Amino acid sequence: MLVSLVLGRFGFAVIAVLFAFAALAIAAIGLPGLSYMTMASAVMLSGFCTLGAQFGNNAAAGMLYPTSFRSRGVGWALGIGRFGSMLGPLIGGLLIGQKVPAQQFFLVAAVPMGVGLIASVSVARLCYRRLGGVHLDEMAERVSPKSKETLLAESS
């Protein structure tokens, strides 16, 4: 709920910030010599930001795509996320089996958040250029269903 409120107020840039903080927090988990409280804070921040970015992306999809494509697009995104949730532990197990040090292990785990950061910045820039803003409430007022379909056709 907090992410939705902030997303509605500040727009798509919030998703990029969440991805950036998630990447930093995940990478910090593997740093040697962290106190218990610092480690717990990094784990909590990484979980909050990762889930917040995921939920923010779902909310943003509802504003960007026309109804006919929205359910299909969000469904595919969630399906690919499920694939990632199966692939992640397999890669983690492989890295543990190779006896990768903890610092490198968590750096590898932060890479998907870095990819999400790049993608979310790209989406925010695209929305700003094509729709005149990055705030969800502004776009809902400015973008008609016809122009949303045009946006999808142009980006394909």
Written overview of the protein:
This protein is mainly α and 156 residues long. The chain is built from 7 helices and no strands. The protein has helices spanning 2-10, 13-29, 36-64, 67-97, 102-131, 136-142, 145-155. Helix 2 runs antiparallel to helix 3 (36-64) and helix 3 packs antiparallel against helix 4 (67-97). The longest helix has 31 residues, at 67-97. The radius of gyration is 18 Å and the shape is globular. The model has no long low-confidence stretch (mean pLDDT 82).
Protein traits:
86% helix, 156 residues, globular
Q: How many DSSP H or I helices?
A: 7
Low-confidence stretches: none
How large, in whole angstroms, is the Cα Rg?
18 Å
Report the span from N to C terminus.
32 Å
Q: Write the H/E string, N to C.
A: HHHHHHH
Q: What fraction of residues sit in β-strands?
A: under 5%
Average predicted local confidence, pLDDT: 82
Question: Got a strand count?
Answer: 0
Shape: globular
Give the proportion of residues in helices.
over 70%
Q: By helix and strand content, what is the structural category?
A: mainly alpha
> How is the biggest beta sheet arranged?
none
